[in-house]
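Please review this one.

:::
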Amino acid sequence: MGNEHWVETTLREVVTNKKGKKPLVLSEKPFKNSLSYIDIEAFETGKIKQYADIESSTHCVNSDILVVWDGARFGLAGYNQKGAIGSTLACLTPIEIEPLYLLKFIQRNYQIIQQKPKGMATPHVDPEVFWNLEFPLAPLNEQKRIVEKLDAILPKVKQAKARLENISTILKKFRQSVLAAACSGKLTERWREGKDLPEWEEENIGNVITALNYGTSKKCDYSVKNGIPVLRIPNVSSGKLTLDDLKFAAFDKKEQSHYSLESGDLLMIRSNGSVSLLGLSVIVDDSVVGYAYAGYLICLKCNKQLMVPNFLHLVLSSNGLRTQIELPARSTTGVHNINSEEIKSLVVPLPPFPEQQEIVHQVEKLFAVADALEGKYQSAMSRVNKIEQAVLAKAFRGELAEADPDDEPAEELLKRILREKDND
């Protein structure tokens, strides 16, 4: 920590706090004595869509720090908003502390807060972790100098992150462009020249597969005696097979034969809360042959005289098929579904079999280039994130800004803070 002019305290000692709540009156338009209503969306975007009555609201001012208290992004902190705060937010009012110094401190500890959530269904900030965070209290003038330094450095880091994120966006567009070219025949135009091949056709998936089976409804667990691994949504939701979170179930011979996966099968997500995951498919490879699959998945077996399994997988990943899957499947209940008949009715391009093989070959080569660039992007992003955390770490060790012996020592500042807190 800093130097002899700094003191160590806890976060709870240097702020007052209040939890947000849902006001009794909410309106889409301002009304007399109303306040801007800051729910989680307004907190993240700054866009106010509702207004609340003053009397039943919890208020915040621009110098307060707002913290997401409930939900997946708990511990996220923001600043410079004024209004009535919603029930998923908490408001921290700094006591004689530079507000931006406090904000940067909470941002510095975001990962620590996230590592220990309270609650299971809806995670939220654990008060014991949050309020007992060790707070390095610098002299007030030094806090301001630290904030000035951070304001000079961190925007450059954020600019670097933004440029890197743009690379990720470009790679996603590149992959979709490759898929669009693959599914329209543009990718293999030159390859077709001089070959006596029939024209492309369109066909329903039901006519190019030999079987479509729902997964098992058996209860799975991490430890089952003589159990067989059962692939679930977490094993396929990245678009690739991941086997680091496997559960098992016991099957008799008939069940094992029915649910046993073969190389070249396609596994598709048939039900999910996220419409973007619905219909997502992966190819079964040799690493999971003989595994079973759970009930929220469907197994498609291609007619390998008509359809190359990897080609069908590419088609299912394309924007054209995503539109066919997502639009009719959207649900207001929060769970989106696609059934076997809907899958069979999906319309897919059907090139000649040799051309399907060539398309798969060309796409794999192009995707390998994109994957290599993605790896470099991830590595660069990791380094940039480490730079940001390193800068914040230096700031709260007192290594970023010069100490000034004429500053009031933090010990005196803390005494004033505690007196003021006692008087509240």
In short: Residues 140-184 form the longest helix (45 residues). The chain has a mean pLDDT of 93.
